[in-house]
Amino acid sequence: MTPPRRQRRFPQEGPPPQPAAPARKEGEGGNPERLYVVTGPDGERADLDLVTLIVAGSPDPPPSAGPEQAALLRLCAAPLSVAELSAYLNLPFSAVTVLITEMLAAELVQARSPIVRKALPDRSLLEAVMHGLQRL
C-alpha cells in the first residue's frame, strides 16, 4: 500500500477587491440597539441588588411589552436573580434594573430579597420549642 501523495499548492490570484459596504443605520443588520432605546427615556431604577430574586406573575407578556420585557417575563417563570437575568439577556445590570423597575410599576413581576442565613433562628432554639410542644 502506498501512502497518499500530497499535491503542492501554488499561490493563486485572489478574487478582485470588493467595494466597501454602504453604512448601515443604527439597529439594522447585526448592530445592537442603544441602551436608552431598550430602557426608555425615564431611566429610573428601583433599589435592586445583584442577588434580588425576580418572579413573574404570568409568563405571558402583555401586547404592549417590548421584546426585552417579553424575554424577561419568560425567563422569570421560576425565580431568577438580577445577575442571572442580566447574563441571559446579555444586557448590563443597569439596563436590566431599569427594565425590572418598569415591570415592577406595572405589577408584571415581583422582587424578593434573598433569604439571609443569619436571619434564620438557631437550631437549638427550634429543638427547644419542638420538645416543649411535644410535652404538652
Structure description:
This protein is mainly alpha-helical and 136 residues long. It is 35% helix and 7% strand. It contains five helices and three strands; from the N terminus they run H-E-H-E-H-H-E-H. The chain has helices spanning 35-39, 67-75, 82-89, 93-105, 123-135; strands spanning 53-56, 80-81, 109-112. The model is unreliable at 24-31 (pLDDT under 50).
Number of helices: 5
- Termini separation: 92 Å
What is the percent of helical residues?
25-40%
Computed over alpha carbons, the radius of gyration is 27 Å
Question: Can you give keywords for this protein?
Answer:
three-stranded antiparallel sheet, single chain, 3 strands, mainly alpha, 136 residues
Give a topology summary.
Blueprint: H1 35-39, E1 53-56, H2 67-75, E2 80-81, H3 82-89, H4 93-105, E3 109-112, H5 123-135
Antiparallel strand pairs: 1-2, 1-3
Give the structure's gist in a few sentences.
With 136 residues, this protein is mainly α.
